[in-house]
Amino acid sequence: MSYLLMKTSRRQFLKLTAAASALPFASMASSASAVNKPIVISTWNFGKQANEEAWKILSAGGKALDAVEAGARVPEGDPKETSVGLGGLPDRDGRVTLDACIMDEQGNIGSVACLEHIVHPVSVARKVMEKTPHVMLVGEGALQFALANGFKKEKLLTKESEKAWKEWLKEKKYKPVANIENHDTIGIVALDAQGNLSGACTTSGMAYKMRGRVGDSPIIGAGLYVDNEVGAATSTGVGEEVIRIVGCHLVVELMRQGNSPEQACKMAVERIIRKNPDKAKAIQVGFLALSKSGEYGAYCLQKGFTYAVHDSATNKLFDASSIY
Ligand code: GLY
Predict the structure, then answer these.
(1) pLDDT tens digits for 199-228?
(2) Any bridge partners for residue 322, and if so which?
(3) Which atom belonging to ligand 1 lies closest to the Cα atom of 237?
(4) Which is nearest to 248 in space by CA: 284, 221, 214?
(5) Could you tell me if residue 172 is inside a domain?
(6) pLDDT averaged over every residue in the chain
């Protein structure tokens, strides 16, 4: 009998069996390969390197919280990644503004939005969680807090991102593009050897957004949610649509009701379509979820959303199933 089945009550077992019989073989295989802890999963191709960093902590018996922060910092610090941290594409005024959040197994949360000049907003979010009586700091206040806590003020707009922005200025088309350059936000969730879940999410947001625009990524419940009894979820894509359905909280609640991570992600994607059917055809939104027992799954609107999984056996990329 597998670890998952031993740990599962008869009622849950019957639900899982029924769910598994409705899933295609590939989904069953991915679920069955992830029954062990620790495990870390994250969005898009850059999730693979992020997972490698997180795995160093998880495989040494470290905390999921430390692992997700370490993982999220990888694309944040990479100037070639144009959707997160350093090198992120700017807003329409040419300013790089970053959003990030973090959540631990006890329900502690920290978040920053519209933060400028700091390469690692996820670490500022963690400091908000650990050092303030608040859960979210934005804009100038978030920057002041970061500087007061030892973060360095840096120029985030790289030559390449500036060039892309100047190119955009020629037409100034304000249209979210699905799978822009095959990646977007990094959302990362992990289950550590102690069986605790944590998550983090970080992005430079929609390219060429209006000044002050904040997406789903720093909004707990929208871009990230962790419930240590049930599971964790994170999202990527057009944040406005994720916020509208409080997407990641929804995914976790659907898992609580007995749905597998993949089923829960699919149901959240379907909710987005129901709320805004015409818009949903033209945009990308993807959800990625991990259950308390280490089962994982993802679902998205459009083909092209990839996610990375690192457990004791492997660090692999998967294509999420899509509606369209
Ligand atoms: N999901 C990232 C954003 O909409 O900003």
Answers:
(1) 999 999 999 999 999 999 999 999 999 999
(2) 300
(3) 1
(4) 221
(5) yes
(6) 89
